[in-house]
Amino acid sequence: MINNILEISTDNKELSCYKGFLRIKEKGDIIKDVPFDSICSLIVTARGVIYTNNLLQNLCENNIPLIILSDNFHPSGILLSLIGQQRQTNIQELQISISKPLQKNLWAEIVKEKIKNQSKLLNLLQKSNPIDKLHSKVLSGDSGNIEAYAARLYFPSLFGNGFIRNHDLNGINSFLNYGYSILRATIARIVVASGLNPSFGIKHHNKLNPFCLVDDLIEPYRPITDAIVYNIFNGIDDETKILSPEYKKKLAEVIHLEVYNGEGFSELYNIIQQDVWNFVSSVKDKKVKLNYNQYMIKL
Q1: Mind listing the pLDDT tens digit for each residue in 97-113?
Q2: In this structure, are residues 121 and 226 in contact, taking their beta carbons and an 8 Å threshold?
């Protein structure tokens, strides 16, 4: 399967099915037919888009997330298949019954890896690094909230002292929103395909969020999007810079990045897939079996 992100960014499109293809029309005229088996995720940022019920059904059957983004490219909602593997029920029973100590230990490993990658990015860009070795202070469940402390130091070091991470702002923030949405959709697809229930997180718990587990597992990969956004802006925030189709394409290509794994190179999509399976193994074997790629931030 070719893992392509398909975005509908111009208004008043009509989306339907046609013989295994997603058909895009405008004012009754056919614009394009895209095979379902080439689509990783469908993202909609346009207004006035019409969907047929058959299309939504086919997206679910092909495990293709439909992500609706707000004006500032933050996810407003996601439609995701409930169809997993044949072992889905068994895996989800184990997932729901996972012990609190294991949840805390898994979350600690995730936070450590996120901070390590943030620190590696700062070093790679030759920035001041106030979070170097901070991962070593992360306790079980991140009871000291080191993740949030690291974020307060990390973003100003990366993008400048005046930078504030805010979902509602333009410029770098809107680019980060879009890039994170790409990662979130990709991980959501892999999580469901593995048989896990995306609603049951190990740290994130919110009855209004059906993707708590996705928001747990995404954390170590955020610095890769940060690196792409940094390169686009050359490290200087500019709220007048528009998230054009060209920039969206650069951000969407994050899942195709060739990442060194210690022996050779593999697409980030495949690395995330292996990491999710390691999480499944942790759930099954009731111990932490996460094994992140230590070279991942060396883009």
Answers
A1: 999 999 999 999 999 99
A2: yes
**Which residues does 157 contact at the CB level (< 8 Å), separation at least 6?**
122, 127, 128, 129, 130, 131
Q: Which two tokens stand for residue 226?
A: 């940060």
Instruction: List, for residues 4-30, the tens digit of each pLDDT value.
Output: 778 898 899 999 999 989 999 999 999
Q: Are strands 14-18 and 21-26 parallel, antiparallel or unpaired?
A: antiparallel
Range in 82-86, 136-140, 162-166 the model is least confident about: 82-86
The two counts, helices (H) then strands (E), for the chain are 9, 10
Q: Residue 21: is it exposed, middle or buried by C-beta count within 10 angstroms (0-12/13-18/19+)?
A: middle
- Per-residue tokens: 123: 């070093």
pLDDT tens digits, residue range 147-184? 999 999 999 999 999 899 998 889 999 999 999 999 99
Q: How far apart are CA 167 and CA 123, in angstroms?
A: 26
Task: Give the dihedral sign, CA 147/285/183/272.
Answer: positive
Cβ neighbours for 42, distance < 8 A, ≥ 6 positions apart: 6, 7, 8, 22, 59, 64, 65, 66, 67
Residue 203, both tokens: 């740290």
Distance CA 166, CA 44 (A): 22
- The pairing of strands 14-18 and 50-51 is parallel
71 contact partners, CB below 8 Å, separation of at least 6: none
Rounded to an integer, what distance in angstroms lies between the CA atom of residue 41 and that of residue 182? Answer: 8
| CA 13 – CA 46 distance, rounded (Å) | 8
